[in-house]
Amino acid sequence: MDFNKNFSNVSESYLFAEVANRVSKYTKSNPDKKVIKLGIGDVTLPLVPAVIKAMHGAVDDMSAKETFKGYGPYEGYDFLRESIRDYYKSNGVELDLDEIFVSDGAKSDLGNILDIFSDKNTVLVPDPVYPVYVDTNLMAGRKIIFADANGDNGFLPMPDYSVNADIIYICSPNNPTGAAYTKAQLKEWVDYANKKNAVILYDAAYECFVSDGDLVRSVFQIEGAKTCAIEFCSFSKIAGFTGTRCGYTVVPKALEKDALSANKLWLRRQSTKFNGVPYIVQKGAAAVFTAQGMKEIKENLAYYMDNAKLIASCMDDLGVWYTGGKNSPYIWLKCPNGMGSWEFFDYLLNNAQVVGTPGEGFGKNGEGYFRLTAFGSREATKEAVERIKKLLKK
Ligand code: PLP
Question: Potential cystine with 245: which of 57, 91, 104, 206 (Cβ 3.0-4.6 Å)?
Answer without folding.
Answer: 104
